[in-house]
Amino acid sequence: MSSFTGVPLEALDFYEDLEADNSKSWWTAHKATYGTAVQAPMAALGEALEDEFGAGKLFRPYRDVRFSKDKTPYKTHQGLFVARDGGAGFYVQVSAAGLMTAAGMRPEAEGLRRYRDAVDSPSGSRLQELVSGLLAEGFVVDGDRLATRPRGIPAGHPREDLLRYKSLFVRREHGAPDWLPTPAAAEKVRADWRRLRPLVDWLEDACT
Description:
Blueprint: H1 9-20, H2 24-53, E1 57-58, E2 77-83, E3 88-95, E4 98-105, H3 109-120, H4 124-136, E5 140-142, H5 160-163, E6 168-175, H6 184-207
Antiparallel strand pairs: 1-2, 2-3, 3-4, 4-6, 5-6
Helix pairs in contact: 1-2, 4-6
């Protein structure tokens, strides 16, 4: 039985304050709050969804600043990812803005080549259909994109926009609704992930 009771609004306050003072001294002073208001509830959320979607990975709160101009040490959100093959999977995060649900893919080089081959083939029309349906329901499409169409793709390709993606995610921003600090939050995430499952299935099949 899951121990998930909701994502406390204290988690949003925690990240709002972290955005204002992203320093080691602030983090050290408030690390206990991170553990109780962010880390534990998000881990419990993953456990509540594991029966249907599989085990999730809770990302570390520390940023990798080795190759970044931004040297702030801590992430201003907490993410949980349930991985599928080919770099595809389901995602949920909490930040100062509230709760976000998402799904998509971030493939390796070979997986990206396979993705583009699939989008270029007749089966790519199914991906276009899935994405269009999600957009109509209020989801947002995001990801890393090429500035121009990939090499070898002719101008005017009907799925040129999808072919430009190097990573592709579809997300929904929920903000801080009344159900966020209640057990119902798990069912809201479950409902979004169920809606996104056909997309994840297509991406997994394409990239592997």
